[in-house]
């Protein structure tokens, strides 16, 4: 859908859109679900913990948001296939928005990372992102407004941070996947973008295995002097999915309080 010629209300709305957001029970994914649903989208989300997911679903229902849920471990291929089959049924074969958000961090010296560590982080963060995009492609093609894919990477995909080598590799690859898919799918009317947050107040940033010295150093070189709230990332994701962003594709946008320019 091209923004030009449309009313302000149409350009800045997601009314009637359908969306899949992975990892919506907590943190950034939770805020993205609420932001997209708040702008009028019907959203499906997933996580591994069924009880937490169901508690979220009930709260969203009370708020009048249209959100459905299903359990899925995005690191498992068959779970991803089941998830997309559920999404296909839920939204009658059409998907307007895919947000690949679910991810895990690993704070560990590169020399100490095991083969299992490597395989687990790669499968959760990167393979899931590629495979879910592949699985969503026919559903996005069926979108009447043009599909939009948003990956959630990290500033760790741009800069070198100690004890984050494997995690950062997945995020750097997601940034490149964004450009590659955007070039390949532009002719299909599908836009592909990426949001790269800096530190965000979630369970990941509260991880007790993070070296407090690294946190202190990071805060000292952060121009805005504070980490982000999840809603500050979610608003950028919503923008990228709207008709207002109809000429945006292949971009990796840092939402990082200025960390990557300091
Ligand atoms: N927080 C930050 O500072 C920060 C900075 C840059 C980038 N990011 C990125 O932002 C994304 C979200 O991070 P967050 O901080 O919001 O994390 P979070 O608070 O830990 O939430 C992660 C969400 O993803 C789900 N999840 C995790 N592993 C999953 C799996 N294998 N399958 C399905 N769902 C899974 C979790 O639910 P279950 O545990 O129940 O599965 C939860 O809903 C990640 O990709 C992360 O790398 C975060």
Radius of gyration: 18 Å
Order of adjacent strands in the largest pleated sheet:
3-2-1-4-5-6-7
Order of SSEs, N→C? HEHEHEHEHEHEHHE
Write out the CATH superfamily name.
NAD(P)-binding Rossmann-like Domain
Q: How many strand units?
A: 7
Overview in brief:
The chain is an alpha/beta fold. Helix content is 43%, strand content 14%.
Topology:
Blueprint: H1 8-11, E1 18-22, H2 27-38, E2 42-47, H3 50-62, E3 67-71, H4 77-90, E4 97-100, H5 115-141, E5 148-152, H6 165-185, E6 191-197, H7 212-220, H8 230-241, E7 252-255
Parallel strand pairs: 1-2, 1-4, 2-3, 4-5, 5-6, 6-7
Helix pairs in contact: 2-8, 4-5, 5-6
The chain binds NADP nicotinamide-adenine-dinucleotide phosphate.
Write a structural description.
Residues 17-198 form the Ketoreductase domain. Keywords: NADP, Oxidoreductase. The chain has 262 residues and is of the alpha/beta class. It has one domain: Rossmann fold (3-Layer(aba) Sandwich), CATH 3.40.50. Helix content is 43%, strand content 14%. The protein contains 8 helices and 7 strands, in the order H-E-H-E-H-E-H-E-H-E-H-E-H-H-E. The protein has a 7-stranded parallel beta sheet, with helices on both faces. Helix 2 (27-38) packs across helix 8 (230-241) and helix 4 (77-90) packs parallel to helix 5. The longest helix has 27 residues, at 115-141. The radius of gyration is 18 Å and the shape is globular. The relative contact order is 0.16. The mean pLDDT is 97. NADP nicotinamide-adenine-dinucleotide phosphate (NAP) is lined by residues 22-29, 46-49, 52, 72-75, 101-105, 124, 152, 154, 197, 199-200, 202-205.
């Amino acid at each position: 859908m091209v923004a030009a010629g449309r009313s302000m209300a149409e350009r800045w709305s997601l009314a009637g859109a359908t969306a899949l957001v992975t990892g919506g029970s907590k943190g950034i994914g939770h805020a993205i679900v609420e932001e997209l649903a708040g702008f009028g989208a019907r959203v499906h989300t997933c996580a591994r913990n069924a009880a937490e997911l169901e508690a979220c679903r009930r709260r969203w229902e009370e708020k009048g948001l249209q959100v459905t849920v299903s359990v899925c471990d995005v690191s498992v291929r068959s779970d991803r296939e089941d998830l997309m089959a559920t999404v296909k049924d839920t939204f009658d074969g059409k998907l307007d928005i895919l947000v690949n958000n679910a991810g895990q961090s690993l704070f560990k010296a590169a020399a100490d990372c095991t083969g299992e560590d490597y395989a687990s982080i790669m499968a959760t963060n990167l393979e899931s992102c590629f495979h879910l995009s592949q699985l969503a492609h026919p559903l996005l093609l069926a979108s009447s407004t043009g599909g939009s894919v948003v990956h959630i990477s990290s500033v760790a995909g741009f800069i070198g941070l100690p004890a984050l080598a494997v995690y950062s590799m997945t995020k750097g690859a997601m940034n490149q996947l964004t450009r590659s898919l955007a070039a390949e799918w532009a002719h299909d009317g599908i836009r592909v973008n990426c949001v790269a947050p800096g530190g965000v107040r979630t369970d990941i940033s509260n991880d007790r295995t993070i070296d407090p010295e690294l946190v202190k150093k990071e805060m000292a070189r952060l121009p805005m002097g504070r980490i982000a709230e999840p809603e500050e990332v979610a608003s950028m994701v919503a923008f990228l999915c709207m008709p207002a962003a109809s000429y945006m594709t292949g971009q990796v946008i840092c939402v990082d309080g200025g960390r990557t320019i300091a």
